[in-house]
Amino acid sequence: MKLIYKYSILALTAMLSFQSCSIEPELTDVYDERVAWSGEANVELSLNKFYPLIGQSYYSAHVNQDAYADLLKKNTPNDEVNLLILGSSTITPGANPLDNWPWGYTWIRHCNEFLDGLKTKGAGLPTEFYQRAEGEVLFFRAYVYFELAKRYGASVILYDGLNDGVGRPLSKPDEVWDFIAADLDKAAAQLPATVPAAKRGKITKGAALGLKARAMLYAKRWKASSDAVTALQALNLYELYADYKALFNQRRSEGAENKESILEFGFLAPNFTYSFDYFFGPPLDGGYAQISPTENLVKEYQMADGTDFTWNNPVHAANPYQGREPRFYASILYNGAPWKGRILETVVGSKEGYAVGGGTTSTGYYMRKFFDERLTDLGRGELTFYFMRYAEVLLIQAEAMAEQGQLSAGLEALNKVRRRAGFTRDLTATNTGQLLSLIRRERMVELAFEGHRFWDLRRWGLAPSVLNGTHATGVKITKAANGNLTYELVDADNGRSRVYPEKYNRFPIPIAELQRNPNIEQFNEWK
């Protein structure tokens, strides 16, 4: 009884993320399973409790994950991210800031309890509603298993029903990927292709197909991934939004049509807002400036004509922030950038200038992407979080086709993303390795700060070479009395080398699980 009551309270909170808040549940002072499954309204409340899984904290978690890679640098030296990446702390079976094992199995239990209740007590529900409800929760279960698989090499425990309390052995990776694919296939078959505007943000067929494409990329099942993209495209519902900058400045209250969004989480004041700008914004905004983009990322933004930026080019070095591609200006706040009615100044000695120690930028840059330039109260953000957007799907397609040796198809998908970015000259490649290199760079730039980079480097097998024994770079700008600027590339890690041993490619099973379950043992590399 307590469990159902708890679910109802969580659901009432979660439903605030939707515009369709007209659901009228049956109210009573005694909750039992007959009430929970008595009609569509009550079941809908239970469904809504799962939706915080896809973005309740806006982009905070994704930005923090990118700080473990080479895109972003935490500005406070003793931040836990810096302690880990610089070797002051290490990942162990007892301590892992990126561990999600308890989180994952809590949500899997919730999913299986819902599915069991639907099966055993939901027979009276309309067939279409029953299938949609089942499809939504299968999507969420697949997503949770995918997040576990990312961390533990898909060597996790499968529960396809209620936990009987008996410890189970680890499943083989192929079994886990098969399970995720089957859940998403069934979800896609049962979910609607579209939902009414008032229910924007509900899981759809396209979301299930998109997540399958993403998951199968990690599984290295290239054809299954590209086939999922093909099925998504056959829906004829999605296309790239014309303006990359405007894409990330949409408030739910404005109701803009956006066909790039495959699955999103919308925020709406006063009941559902976030404080992202408060924690990550520049100091003169009233922000705490907890994080800054690195020069490692910034140099990858090409010139508007498609040529590479390089500090070795005297023209580029004299005016490094002129003539860059549009995504640079949409994503990065740099010295001289117009921002909230002022010109941002990141020169040494300015209030928002380069410094070491926290409270301002340690790289010479701030993020712009995800910030609301119109926002005055930084604790009341209302922009949209994209769980998945069509640009990512195209980059998945490009990679999956490249891995299958289909270069023309891979290039076409890649160049669609670049054309939206303003490039007029398409990229070319003569072999798979060359095309994959182009795709990896494009993912770094197009998906910057969206939480993909760290996991991409791991699945590509590049994390040890990119993140071990290396340094993040920043730009220290000094201003002379005559106004001339001097740009100096600096080590944003303050002379310390980053640490990423190869065994981090698969995280250790948490010690609490090993103590609880005698039927599993620790991975060999962690013994």
State the major sheet: 2 strands, antiparallel
Poorly predicted ranges (pLDDT <50, ≥5 residues)? Answer: 1-25
Summed over residues and divided by their number, the pLDDT gives a mean of 93
Helix content: 40-55%
Question: How many distinct beta strands?
Answer: 10
CA-based gyration radius: 24 Å
Class inferred from helices and paired strands: mainly alpha
Envelope shape: globular
Strand order of the largest sheet: 1-3
Helical stretch tally: 21
Strand content: 5-15%
Distance between the termini: 42 Å
How does the SSE layout of this entry go?
Blueprint: H1 2-14, H2 33-36, H3 40-48, H4 60-66, E1 72-74, H5 80-85, H6 101-121, H7 127-152, H8 173-190, H9 205-218, H10 222-233, H11 244-247, E2 261-266, H12 276-280, E3 291-293, H13 295-298, H14 314-318, H15 326-331, E4 332-333, E5 338-339, E6 342-343, E7 366-367, E8 384-389, H16 390-403, H17 407-420, H18 432-446, H19 453-459, H20 463-467, E9 473-479, E10 485-491, H21 511-516
Antiparallel strand pairs: 1-3, 2-8, 4-7, 5-6, 9-10
Helix pairs in contact: 1-3, 3-7, 6-7, 7-8, 7-9, 8-9, 9-10, 9-16, 10-16, 16-17, 16-18, 17-18
Description:
By secondary structure, the chain is mostly helical. The chain is 41% helix and 8% strand. It has a two-stranded antiparallel sheet with strand order 1-3. It has a two-stranded antiparallel sheet with strand order 2-8. A hairpin with a 2-residue loop joins strand 5 and strand 6 (342-343). Helix 3 (40-48) runs parallel beside helix 7 (127-152), helix 7 packs parallel to helix 9 (205-218) and helix 10 (222-233) packs across helix 16. The radius of gyration is 24 Å and the shape is globular. The two termini are 42 Å apart. Residues 1-25 have low confidence and may be disordered.
